Structure formats: structure tokens, C-alpha cells
Request: fold
Amino acid sequence: MTDGERILGFGDMGANGMAIPLSKAVLYTALGGLQPYHCLPVMLDVGSAVVIVSGLMTASRVTQKKISQNSYLFYGGGGASIGIARLLVQAIMEEGFSEDEAKSRIFIMDSKGLIVTSRELSSAKSEFARSDYPQIDSLLEAIRLIRPSVLIGASGQSGAFTRDILRELSTIHKTPIIFVLSNQSNLGECTSQMAYKATEWRCIFVSGSSSEPVRTPDDRLLKPSQGNNCYVFPSLVNALSLAVIRPLTYKLLLTTAKKLSELVTDDDIRQGSMYPSIARLPTITKEVSCAIMEQAYKDKIAFFTPEPYNKMEFIESYYYDHRYINFTPDQYVW
Reply:
């Protein structure tokens, strides 16, 4: 628990950051079916690692590359980037690589440039410090040297991904993956329109804030994804509370990311979206919760007994219906 001083895209909000957990409590009920009187908003500066890694898994379906076959450059060295990078390491390790091999695919830049071992660093940043690369201050120079297939912005620096940077990415990779995660669209490193145009409409684009649909020169309508953690938090809280799961492991987080990615349809992808339609969220929440429970019982960290035979029925039996009852009296035609 913290005092709300490192909220992604907003920075130090102090007690004003309480609006975020309050709104999340509403989402837990509306999307996850949790009983509202079981929800207690608590101030936590948590990142969105699960939903971002899930989006990267979906992007892999487009590029026909495994997660481990990409190189990742994070622009912004705060808690969000570190959290995503840590879960990404676990995803790469699941494909048969060691922790060091997984970390070798990840690069992080902060306000002072590329994070390298020659710098004085916090313990969190030290996890991803490079000893095999020189100090690089320029993002464009870093892209030319590292040649990342995935560029993730979490700096809150508006316009940091210039046209030259985006074009450089598109010359290195046929389908560059660009995630702009800073909340509030005016803080984004670039807009969806800029990213699509600079990469000749070839990039995969995900943003932290909602983006307007973009019409391509060949009259396709692209609907950029919003990597919103409402895709995963209700599912996690639902499964953890109903099945009494302890502790929350990396394995369960990756299970959540994988299941969410599996629920993205081919139609979603054709429209440029790396996540399912928001309209399907109540159903998606239940399916992801089921997957989390299945894995938790398999790992022997779910303590509700006996284990529910039909986990979907079990979830639905506790599902809170937030719709208002119709109090209009019956009317009869005489």
C-alpha cells in the first residue's frame, strides 16, 4: 500500500488518487459480479502488467512470432515498466528460456537514458540494467542499436515517439508493435493516427487511453485497442475470493493473460484490436475466472472445499446482478 504518489500517467495524486480504487470497486461489481458490500476500496499503486502481456500475446498471433522472439524497449523506467517487464520475463521463461536469457530481450530507458550497470540505480531498475550496451541517451539512437520489435511507452512524455522514431521502427520490422500506455491521451508518446501513418499502416497499436477509430487509405476502419486493466482485475478478484486462492502467483497472472488473449476473435484482430470487445466483458470475466480457478486447484493453492465440479456454475451462483429491479406495477388492458 502506498500514498498514491506513482499513479501511471498521473504521477503524485495523493489522496485524490482514491477515485481510482473507488471506480474499480464499481467495475468489480458491474463486470465481475462481486457483491458490492464485499468490495472495499484500498489505495494501491498497481500496474497493468497482466493486460499488457496479454496484448503482446495477441500481437504474437499477428506477427507469427513467439513472445521470446521479440526484443522489447521500454521508454519510461517507472513502476509500470518494471512490473510489465517482470511478468514478461516469466512469459519468456515459460517458452523454455532461463531468467538471464529472458532479461536479455528487454531494454529499459528512463529520463537519463538506457539503464546500464555503469549507472547508480535503484534495486528495481538494477534487475534490468545492461552490461553489454553503452550508455545511450537518445531514443532514436537506442532503436537503431537495439532494433526492438516492440516499443512500449510509459513515460508520460507527450510526443516522445516522433515520426522519425516511428519510421525507423517500420524500416527495421514489417509489423512493429507500439504500446503507448500513459493515461490521458494528451500524455501519450504518440497518437494512433501518428503511429499508423508513420509505419504505413503496418503497426500494431495499443494505448492506455481510448483512441478514436482510424480510416486507412484503402478504406479499412481500424479500432485501436485500449489496454485497460478492467479486462483482468474483476476476473482475478472474482477467482481469488470465491476459490480462496493464496498466494497470487506469476503462474496465475500468466494464466489470466493467456486466457484473455485466447478470447480475442479474428474479427477483433482484423479491426486492429488486441483485446476482445468491451461489450463482451461480463462473459469474458467469467471465462477468465474459470481458467484462474482451474490453474489454482491444479497448483493446490485454492482452499475452497470441496473443489467445484462445474466452476462456471459455481461462479454464476455467486454472481451479483447489478440491474435494477423494475418497480413499475403490473398494468392490465381492460
Observations:
- The CA atoms of residues 198 and 318 lie 49 Å apart.
